[in-house]
Specification:
Helix content of chain B: 55-70%
Number of helices of chain A: 6
Largest sheet of chain A: 9 strands, antiparallel
Largest interface: A-B, 61 and 92 residues
Helix content of chain A: 40-55%
Distance between the termini of chain A: 66 Å
Structural class of chain B: mainly alpha
Number of helices of chain B: 9
Shape of chain A: elongated
Oligomer: heterodimer
Order of helices and strands of chain A: HHHHHHEEEEEEEEE
Radius of gyration of chain A: 41 Å
CATH superfamily of the largest domain in chain B: RNA polymerase sigma factor, region 2, helix turn helix motif
Number of strands of chain B: 0
CATH class of the largest domain in chain B: Mainly Alpha
CATH topology of the largest domain in chain B: Rna Polymerase Sigma Factor, Chain: A
Shape of chain B: globular
Largest sheet of chain B: none
CATH architecture of the largest domain in chain B: Orthogonal Bundle
Number of strands of chain A: 9
Number of domains of chain B: 2
Distance between the termini of chain B: 12 Å
Strand content of chain B: under 5%
Chain lengths: 308, 198
């Protein structure tokens, strides 16, 4: 692979990895050369185009309403939304009221004008009161609008908190279930006369065990019914195969199939064990419904010892 | 969605970058216009990830609230506005998907779809976005199934290359090869679209 192709491949993989960090995460400390920078941008846009294959879905009208209500209290006053509106629209300042006397040019009032000046006082007073009332109404209206926006925002937060609390309740239930399982397991291993059998890798004659690192322990309660098995070191089953646990009485009896994940311990348990069980084996089977072991044995219970 | 040339008359719509600049100046009408342009596409993405319109609408609202509070953080050198919005939506939806998976391990949750009729103020699609959807859909459909599968697992389910390999029971090298081939094909096929976004 030549250098350019390798650079492109690495850039693509880096772009996919950056999806996990998010588009707003700080850029990597290592600065890219111009080619890598260009490729990174190109493939970021490719990723941004993928969702356009989907048919658009119109949101419910309430979504936008709630959104605009939530931001309403923080917004600046609306201005015309055009590209040429370089300056915000200016609101004409209110024309200040002028005293009739101050606005008039200095001229000796005629005797006949005195009654006319006197009659303007009620009019001026009424105008002042009307303006004051208008101002008060406008202020109250804006307050009501702000309160509504605040209420809408709080309702939105309340719905978010409800979702969070539901998640927390579910998490509590999960922990309760886990705690109950732990209690059961503890009662099993701490009960009297518990039989303990190590699970050891099976070696065929002349051959090494298939999974020498696999191991585990089988605990059996005094009633010979409740049992708990922990397993570690099992490799993931090959494609199309599963592990099966068999309890061996007069013949092997299946106790279920399971898969294994690398590095993760397994825990199996049940309240039932076939009567007369003398041993336990774990085999690798191609048929999860096999009535009897057909695949290779991986683990086998060693002779038990009693813990009281 | 984004006009490449600067508008020359009062009737031409603002570019995405200009709209976002106005959102950063706390102009709600700018956010409203941005919402009208992208809400349907973003909701489709969130719904694809979450399989629930109700959850997807919540994510949509969170995304635009995030845009309102963080428009100033947009870096034009890193992505177009369209890609920025889409990747933010994807991140939020994937986070919610992962949270939901933890909850669903313990008890059954039923996702009930809201039967309310959804109406868009400007119609769901304009001609421009319809053409883009057709082109992208056509090129995605041309990808071989195995390449499309790994891309969808990575994008819509938030799986890493290793997780895809484990889920699809494939070698990691095979997953990487298919992903690289798919991305390169899309890049070549969608040159015009990418040019419009840059």
């Amino acid at each position: 692979m030549n250098g350019e192709a390798q650079t492109e491949d690495l850039t693509i993989l880096a772009a996919l990895e950056s999806l996990e960090r998010g588009i707003e995460a700080p850029r990597d400390a290592v600065s890219l050369d111009e080619t890598s920078e260009t490729l990174s941008r190109l493939y970021t846009e490719v990723l941004g185009l993928i969702p356009y294959e989907l048919a658009p879905v119109a949101p419910a009208a309430g979504v936008k309403t709630r959104l605009m209500a939530a931001i309403g209290a923080e917004a600046r006053p609306a201005v015309p939304m055009t590209a040429t509106a370089a300056e915000p629209a200016r609101v004409a300042p209110p024309v200040p009221l002028q005293e009739p006397r101050a606005a008039r040019p200095a001229a000796p009032p005629a005797p006949a004008a005195r009654p006319a000046r006197a009659s303007r006082w009620p009019l001026a007073l009424a105008a002042v009161l009307a303006l004051a009332l208008l101002g008060l109404s406008a202020w109250l209206y804006s307050q009501v609008g702000a309160q509504r926006a605040t209420i809408a925002g709080l309702r939105h937060q309340l719905s978010l908190e409800r979702v969070r609390s539901e998640g927390a309740v579910a998490r509590v239930r999960q922990l309760e279930n886990e705690g109950f399982d732990l209690q059961q397991n503890l009662s099993l291993v701490s009960s009297r006369a518990v039989l303990v059998s190590p699970m050891r890798p099976v070696a065929r004659p002349g051959q090494a065990p298939l999974q020498p690192d696999a191991h585990g322990t089988l605990f059996v309660a005094a009633d010979h019914q409740h049992w708990y098995m922990s397993l570690q070191g099992l490799q993931p089953a090959p494609a199309g195969q599963v592990y099966k646990l068999w309890f061996v009485a007069d013949h092997p009896v299946s106790s279920g199939s399971f898969t294994a994940r690398p590095g993760e311990p397994m825990a199996l348990s049940s309240q039932q064990m076939p009567a007369g069980t003398k041993g336990a084996i774990v085999t690798l089977e191609s048929d999860p419904n096999a009535p009897a072991p057909t695949g290779p044995a991986i683990l086998q219970a060693a002779p038990p010892y009693e813990v009281s | 969605m984004s006009s490449v040339t600067a508008p020359s008359s009062p009737t031409e719509p603002l570019t995405d970058v200009a709209l976002l600049r106005q959102v950063a100046e706390r102009r709600p009408e700018a956010l409203s216009a941005l919402y009208d342009r992208y809400a349907a596409t973003l909701l489709a993405l969130a719904k694809r990830i979450l399989a629930s319109v109700a959850d997807a609408e919540e994510v949509l609202q969170e995304v635009f609230l995030h845009v309102w509070n963080n428009a100033g953080r947009y870096d034009a050198g890193r992505s177009s506005v369209s890609t920025w919005l889409i990747l933010i939506t994807r991140s939020r939806a994937i986070d919610r998907l992962r949270t939901r998976k933890v909850v669903e391990r313990t008890h059954e949750t039923s996702v009930q779809e809201n039967p309310v009729e959804h109406a868009s103020p400007e119609g769901v699609e304009n001609v421009f976005s319809h053409e883009r959807r057709e082109r992208v859909g056509r090129e995605m459909a041309k990808l071989p199934d195995e390449q499309r599968q790994v891309l969808e697992l990575a994008f819509y389910e938030g799986l890493s290359q290793s997780e895809i390999a484990a889920k699809a029971d494939l070698p990691l090298g095979t997953v990487k090869t298919r992903t690289l081939l798919a991305m390169k094909k899309l890049r070549n096929a969608l040159r015009d679209e990418i040019r419009q976004l840059l």
